[in-house]
## 1
Amino acid sequence: MTQSGWQRRIARAEKLGAQCSYAAEILLFYTAIARFQEKLAAEITHGSRSVSFMEPLPPKMIGRFADFLALVERTGPEPLRKAARDLQGTGASSQVERLTGFWRQEGQSATNCGTHEFFARAFLQPYAASLREASEFRWTGPTPFVCPFCKQKPGVGVLRPLGEGGQRSLICSFCLAEWEFRRIVCPGCGEEDHAKLPVYTAEDFEHVRVEACDSCWMYIKTVDMTKSGLAEPVVDEMASIPLDIWAQERGYAKLQVNLLQL
């Protein structure tokens, strides 16, 4: 039986959590979030009608936000538990306003905005992914630097086997769309000079690399599937925390924080 994307990510998070003690806590939390997302995705129905980011969110789905806050309060790290309690105290109308605001901006400014962004991004991600999967949207023209579907920034890169080498793609930090991207180009500023695009790897993470830019001083991590075909890019990116620490100690800023705001 073929696993869904949610199931593959959950299984990978469980495996890496058991192998990597330094990432066990965050991957355990991610697993709880992903299980909720999987169930929410199964509940979402929008038929064949085209749905845009400017339309109201389904009331039935919004009704599940209280359950999501309760989950985070039970299983999240303390800063997110406190934030969940704070959000629970703001009332339903304020919560809907927060979710709608994030949804309608289509990622234009929804980047590294702090703890409270986590709630809207993680809760709405299954809906965004569902719309993207059901749409017939296809991008044409120049390779986009942001997601061609929801306009959010990429959260991780991936190298997939192609001939004797690898084809580079980017994966959206929100709707999880994947699109091809040129190998020697910074997805932050468009720098093309390979001398200004250093790549860093570490022995403990042979299949994950830091792709930095000495023009804009941003970086993105890329998961090399030619070295580990069992990897799940979204999960392996989260698990390789030491690479983020290493990059940030050297002055690079992350192009887009991941779902857990890391």
## 2
Amino acid sequence: MKIAMTINHKAVEYSVEPDQTLADVLRANGLLSIRQACETGNCGLCTVWMDGKPVLSCSTLAYRAQGKAITTIEGVETEARTVAELLVEEGADQCGFCSPGLIMTVLAMKRELPEANEEDIKNYLSGNLCRCTGYASQMRGIKRYMEVE
């Protein structure tokens, strides 16, 4: 089946299989920032925005993106760089495999909960896993980002 969507402000049309995930379609079309680890919707590494809301692209069927606006980290490069720099400054860079999904979730959180406190941050990011950092350094960087105007 054919689907039409907008990816990072660019109209595209792809042929997809009924059971193909959005993550697979995006990666097959060059958006390699989409990470896949659990492929069950549990780790958050594949997070993208669909119409401005974070979704797990590994558990979203591609046909559901029909007519939608999809944003990956490539589409929010300036904002993402700010978050990434703060994470690095706080020692949360480690291997970086989880970073695109985490950053997409952090950016969505700031838009949805601009006054988020530490508990709000923990709740919002509960679906983003990282094997390297222990989360303390990530929390410091994220709290700093939440203070950026």
## 3
Amino acid sequence: MLSHITARLNSLNQFLAAIEIREKDYLLRSRKALELLTKYDAEFKLLVKQGNLKTQSNEIHYFKIQRPQLLSNIIYYSKIYHLETNKPIGSLKKIRKYYRKQLKKIDAFFLENRDFINYIRSGETIADVKMFTRNNIDYISVKESTMAALDQEQTTNFDHKLAKFYACERLEGFLFERITAVNKMLRKLKGLSVNNSSERSMLGNKLEELMTSDEVLRKLKISERKLQYMRDNGEIPYGYIGKGIYYLEKDIFAVYAASRKNRLSDDE
């Protein structure tokens, strides 16, 4: 069973790598990855349910090495999806503040679980039986109320925490990457304010208060085709920074307010 799962994990990683390359949109990438991971999760759970972990060493290997690989991907892509879905609509500085807040949560997780993380990083095995075998969950040690709702045939004291640790390491890299991109955009905007008079005229004085097309779609609840129509007909001012299209936050909120006023008038 363990060799079969290793082969399936290798296959999964190849599929996930292909999704990462093909799908540039974070929300679409996360949805497709989670759809794939759900299928693999069901497959692995069925193998465990059928009683294929016949020895304690196999059980420890599965819940310490193999299961966290799958579960960490589920946690990671789920978190990315919710991060991007709940990202604030507004200025680049507001978005940067949001990402930094998420980083602080990861730092808090690392600090709270530093003893466990040190155990994993050290390669120790002395506590593996307690941590990575089933039917002996210690709710005082685990500190996660959600564990009570899990099937104890499919989890141990620490396989979920280990998966969360791996996911947080990846999330940390993702958030640093997004913060770097925002900082780069802010620097570029400051350059435009000095070097490009036409862009400066479009952007006005508050260069950081920009919105992307995705944010506009979410705020106005319209389709991409409708947004294109509004741009083409001059209903929404916009400008290019590199290859990206950006909008002033105040213009979008003015359109939003006008559309809301029209809807209220129609209801009267």
## 4
Amino acid sequence: MKALEKPLDLHEENDRLKAEIGELKALILELKEQNTWLKKQVFGPKSEKVVDHADQLEFPGLDLLQEEESPEESIVKEHTRKKRTATEKDKLVYPDDLPIEQILLDISEDQKICPLTGEPLKKIGEEITKKLAIKPASYFIKEFIKPKYVSPSRPELGVISREMPTGIFQKSKADESLLAHIVTMKFADHLPLYRIQEIMQRDKIMVSRQTLSYWVIKIGEALIPLYDLMEHRVLKSSSIYVDESPVKVLVPGKKKAHEGYMWIYVGGGEGMTPPYLLYDFFMNRNYGNVIDKLENYQGLLHSDKYGAYTTLAKQKGIIWCPCWAHIRRYFVEAQSGNQKFKAYVLRNIRYLYMFEKIAKKRSPEERLKIRKEKEEPIIDDLIEQVKKKLIEGKALPKSKYMKALKYFAGLTPYMKNYLNHEEASIDNNLAERSLRPLTIGRKNWLFVGSEKGGKATATLLSLIQTCRHLKINPREYIEDVMRRIMDQPMSRLSELLPDEWAMAQQKPDTS
């Protein structure tokens, strides 16, 4: 006799189907969020700006913000629009000492006779119109002539002549001015070497890409002492901003490029705007790369929530200031969940940034006071409200909304650290902005040629992007430093750092 089959438990089956439906709904929502995010990345604006005016005028403390409002601003329905006034930025501005090439636009000789009286016309003045013009890069040969001398009566003493000027490439046919031009095009203008080669070929200057690569690496190696000194100053500063970004590296014998990483450390000075941008290259993204670098660091550390930084946050002497821009980004990307609460969080984060904009302009004492009286209550309230939402547990576990809540909650022990230190910042945007040149360059030169090339890239990026950060002409700086570094005493090496070099250029020559 056939055994009776186990009767189907309808209640269990119903519960199973309900759970399965719940999982499928969560998956559909997660996929919808991913699709919305991807469409925004491809077709939509990249800005994370969220316009939300609900209840904004009811917030206590906005009187301070209104005090800072520009008199040139006028309130227009739904938004504030600044009146546009003409400034020097709207005009073509150039130095007064540019060479002038005069072009005479005179009338012909027969036109200088009056057709009615036959008398010669009298010149009463002239009208001058100025136009800014350009000539292609002008290459020229430097020919060093060294007269040689010998004693007429004692020729055995040998020939006497002056030594060639010292430099990185003593026997090279390339002058420092050309080398500085090449590295500036690559690391400031983000041109790959093959494009630099083509540009030079248009002016009938033939040079191989291998030679260009060799020059770049050798320049990077020669300037390592300046890089090391800059690194020392960054690690001794009281506040550092850190971030990292991938960069492709060519590996011999492999078709696929290896993924290396470039770290950025912004620091080296006092106040909220450090002078130095220090890049550091590694062949991987191991925690040890940054942990080893900062093992003896003591001070403020601004960063995102990457695991290496959360590990450093527990290190004695480091005060971690997690990035509020990243917190905001998680809520901006949350397309599901409680959208009213999401708007509430984003609105309050906007208030924090509005107060910070004012605090940065004030004295250190006033800055701390604004943060304590205006910003701390906002953060305390946000922490309390996010905790309540997590306890309620109404959000789907895998949704971006839940991830935003958990990301926020994980940072609560540290998110008020910036309030207590005058040189601290609310976010890590200074480091993120410093990675943009690398991102732009990566799209142009595509990859780093080797691990050795990565180290040279880090050195030259550090010096050239620091120049740009300090409004220094990187080509003039690199050219001068390459001419001087071989003779510069180690005790005075700091004079060749971008900030000190720029200060020396501004001093009048008393020699």
